[in-house]
Amino acid sequence: MALPQHNPPMTLDEAVAELRRDPLHSVHARVDGLEVELRVVAADERPGAAEDALGGAGPWVGESTEEILRVMQEFRRDDGREPPPVIYLLDTNTLVYALNRQGGVRERVNDAALRNRLATSSIVVAELLYGAGRSSRPEENRKWFSGDRAIPDRSFHVRDRRAFARLMTDLAARGKTPPRVDLMIAATALELGATLVTHDDDLLSAPIPALTVVDWFTPQK
């Protein structure tokens, strides 16, 4: 079996740009001869004020490292404090409602994208691609999951798998058995530190400790 290939380390500027493009995956950078790993963390994982300043003083669009440091220094000097953006992980049904303009979900998604971060799971994308393939316009519908239209999707990491196993064990002990795919998506949101956006009764009616679940679907009157 071939060993996985590692991409060469980036410069710090390149790493910041890559994290802005894809905040769900870590990157490697070379700083003063050292190879370091950088990743975006949820608000409750952040260890100190410098990280809060970096997140709150953005967004960053092409600034150099020196410019970012200058803004952070001004932010600290002014004692600025803004709440970090919320990460919303969109479930399958939420994205279907958004694409079909149902229940006011697309408006909620567009509004959230202006002030926060949107993400989804690779499991959700797999479900949507399956649905697109069975639709009357498969090629057109697949375009929503590629290029600039695509919402960043998080792969099902080792930590997500472990969280899924813990959730399954805990819920089974309480006599609750939500569909496994739903729990895999919930585990992804939990490990990402994200708020799960869903219209799924199984997830809305079975509270999962430490996971915030919301529903953006508004029934038509």
Task: Provide structural commentary.
With 221 residues, this protein is of the alpha/beta class. The chain folds into two domains: 12-77, no CATH class; 87-214, Rossmann fold (3-Layer(aba) Sandwich), CATH 3.40.50. It contains ten helices and seven strands. It has helices at 12-21, 49-56, 65-77, 92-99, 105-115, 122-133, 138-142, 158-173, 180-192, 201-204; strands at residues 27-31, 34-38, 87-90, 117-121, 153-154, 195-197, 213-214. The strands form two sheets. A five-stranded parallel β-sheet has the order 5-4-3-6-7, with helices on both faces. Helix 8 (158-173) packs across helix 9 (180-192). The longest helix has 16 residues, at 158-173. It is globular. The N and C termini lie far apart (58 Å). Residues 1-6 and 43-50 have low confidence and may be disordered.
User: Would you tell me the overall average pLDDT?
Assistant: 77
- What's the main sheet like? 5 strands, parallel
Helix percent band? 40-55%
Strand order of the largest sheet: 5-4-3-6-7
| Cα-to-Cα separation, first versus last residue | 58 Å
Strand content: 5-15%
Query: Which stretches are poorly predicted, pLDDT < 50 over at least 5 residues?
Result: 1-6, 43-50
CATH architectural name of the largest domain:
3-Layer(aba) Sandwich
Number of domains: 2
Structural class: alpha/beta
Per CATH, the class of the largest domain reads: Alpha Beta
Count of helical stretches: 10
Q: Which fold does the CATH topology of the largest domain refer to?
A: Rossmann fold
What are the secondary-structure elements, in order, as H or E? Answer: HEEHHEHHEHHEHHEHE
The counted number of beta strands is 7
